[in-house]
UniProtKB/TrEMBL annotation:
One biological process term in Gene Ontology: small molecule biosynthetic process
Key words, A-Z: Iron, Metal-binding, Oxidoreductase
Descriptive protein name: 1-aminocyclopropane-1-carboxylate oxidase
Domain Fe2OG dioxygenase: 183-287
Highest taxon of the lineage: Eukaryota
Gene3D superfamilies the record matches: B-lactam Antibiotic, Isopenicillin N Synthase, Chain
Organism of this sequence: Ophiostoma piceae (strain UAMH 11346) (Sap stain fungus)
SUPFAM superfamilies (alphabetical): Clavaminate synthase-like (SSF51197)
GO molecular function: metal ion binding; oxidoreductase activity
Keyword Cell inner membrane among record annotations: no
Amino acid sequence: MKMAMQIPLIDFSADRSGFYSDDVDRKQAVVDQIRACCLHNGFFQITGHGIALGKQKAVMNAVKSFFALPQEGKDAVSKLNNTWNRGYEMLRSQMLEEGTEPELKEGFYIGDEIPETHPYFINKRLNSGPNQWPDALPDLDEFKTASMDYYSSALALARSLLRALALSMDLPEDYFEKFMTGAVATMRYLHYPSQAPDADEKLSRGIGAHTDFGAITLLLQDTVDGLQVLDSATQTWIDVEPTPDALVINLGNLMQRWTNERYRSNVHRVINKSGLERYSVPFFVSGNPDYVVDCIPTCLSEGESAKFEPVTVEAAVSAAYAESYGRAQLFKNKITEKAVEIPILKAVVAA
C-alpha cells in the first residue's frame, strides 16, 4: 500500500543565504529541519546544494553513455578484475533483501583515484585502489572529467552536510572532521531496466528493501521514478518523485549506530515499472577506514547505555558488503544445483 506522502524538501543553500548564512536564525532553521527528518525517516531532499546543474547533467550523460556500451565493453572493466570494488557490476550481482531474487540492476563503481603506492592500497583498506576506466567509450576523457568533477563536488557537499548534522546533535560544527579526514567514499552509477508491469514485486526488484551501509548517502536521480522509502510511522511506502536540481539525502547504518539509534537509517527500495530505463548516481560516504564509531555522548539520555560496541568504519562496512553479495551468490548456487539435478534425474530414469 502506498500513501500520497512526500520526502521533505529542504533549501540547504550552500552559500550565504542558507546553511552558511550570516543570519543565525536562517541557519538554525535548516539545522532544525534536518534534525526533524533524521529523527523520523532519515530521508530528505535538498536544493541549493551547490553542485551546478551542468555537473549533474554531465555525470548523468556519462552514466547513460557507459551503460549504452556493448556488453563486452562493460565486461572489460568488471569489478571482478580487482579486490577493491572498482568497475562494472553485472545484472543480478547483489541481493539486499532476503526472500527476493538477485536485483535487476547493473552498476559501475568509481572512487577517489588511489594509486598502488598509497598506504590505503598497500594495506588493502576499504574500497581503496585505482579506478577502472572503460576504454570502449569514444569520449573517455569527457567521461573521466564528468565523473571526477561530480565526485569531488559530492564529497565537498558531504562535508557540509555533516557539519549541519553535527549542529543538529548539539555538537561542535567540526565534530565529524576527523571522520572525514582520509574518508573513503564510493560513487555508483546504476541502471535499472524496466520491469514488466505484471512482475511479482515480492520477488523481482531493482533493489530490494535495505538500509545503506555507511554514514550518509547523496543520491542524484534522473527523471524516472522507482525509489520508495518506508514510512516507519505508518508502515507504508513513499514514492520519491525525482525533483529537478534536488539531491536525495539519507542516513546509513553507521550514523544510526553512532547516534544510538536516535537518528534513523531507513529502509528503501527501487521497483521500476515505468516502462522506461532508470538511471541514478548514489554517493556513499563511509569515512576514514580506521575511525572508530562509538556512541555520540549527546545521543545518550540520562541513565541510558550504548546499544552497540565501538567498531571501525572498515569492519562495519566490509561486513555489510560481504553479506549482501554472499546472499546473491548463494541464490545463484542453488539455481545451478537445481539445473544440474534435473538432467541427472532424467539420466537415472532413462537407465
